[in-house]
Amino acid sequence: MGPAARPGRDGMAHTSVRPWTCDTYLRVQVGDVYLSMLAANARRVLADLSALLALAAIEGVAL
After folding, report:
1. Among 6, 16, 57, 62, which is most buried by a count of CB atoms within 10 Å?
2. Interatomic CA distance for residues 22 and 6, integer angstroms
3. How far apart (Å, rounded) are the C-alpha atoms in residues 18 and 2?
4. Distance (Å, rounded) from C-alpha 39 to C-alpha 19?
5. Where on the phi/psi map is residue 11: left (φ > 0), alpha (ψ -120 to 50), or beta?
6. What pLDDT sits at residue 35?
7. pTM value?
8. Sign of the C-alpha dihedral, residues 52, 55, 59, 62?
């Protein structure tokens, strides 16, 4: 097993060695709210969110 990257308190990626496999998560903070998602799903989730925000902007919806 190789090192697995994980964010540290300083926001930088740090590595550690684990004897088992772990899923990698992306953690996003918006204001005081945190959203965690599997990194494997992040591209699709962020693309869907981007499309939703673009549609809201076109429709003039205040977010």
Report:
1. 6
2. 11
3. 8
4. 20
5. left
6. 84
7. 0.45
8. positive
